[in-house]
Amino acid sequence: MPRPERFAVPAFPAGAAPAPCLRAALFRILPASFWTETIMHSTLPQHIAVIMDGNGRWAKQRGLPRSKGHLAGVDAVRGLVRECRTRGVPFVTVYAFSKENWQRPEAEVGFLFELFLQFIRQELPELMEQDIRLNFIGEKSDLPFAVRQALDYALRKTADNRSMVFTLAISYAGREEILHAVRRALAEGLRPEELTEEKFRSFLYDAALPDPDLIIRTSGEERLSNFLLFQSAYAEFYFSPVLWPDFGPHELDLALESYAARTRRFGKTDEQLR
To answer: Does 55 participate in catalysis according to the annotation?
Structure first.
């Protein structure tokens, strides 16, 4: 998948990224800008998933209605996509609306779906310009007709874009996705021994979407909240105290720096990774 120009040449040749202890030392002595532009590329996550939390609290702290917090949150989503596209992250997924969010006041839910509709329509030209493919996971049948219509159009329009995949998780729940996959497997009449991990994955909302390497959650909360339960088995987590509307480029860099300093073993030993 093509990357932006400034990431065309990695700072380190393949297999020569600094060891974890050296990376930690470099964090302390080098400015964030140097890390972002050079070292980080060797360990850049391929898929970042974000649990966006704190819109309501952001508004409350400012004496504003919750709707203003959601509006500011949309701006933060827009900024996240642009920043990840610039840095060369090929997959970004945001938890925009959970199945549980339907329990919120009817007026707030209606406002959120108006925002989704506006966002899809307004962002489509930039998605095309930046060669970003829009993707969706969740229960599409739950969505209002106008939102489904706009979403389907944007999905078709951006289908051939290749530089980045931006996934909206709307009316999404991780447990429901697992049940969805089980029902599909049962409907196909699979025998127990035929249901491998790979086969099970094929029944998920989007089998082609890679597992997230990094899951970011804002506002100081530290839980998954029913998000990508099957896919997050080996994800790294980063919990930011910053409320979502204030999560900008600096906070993203902090998350990427934290990720780059970690060693992902996938069950192996340090010696096996050398």
So the answer is: no
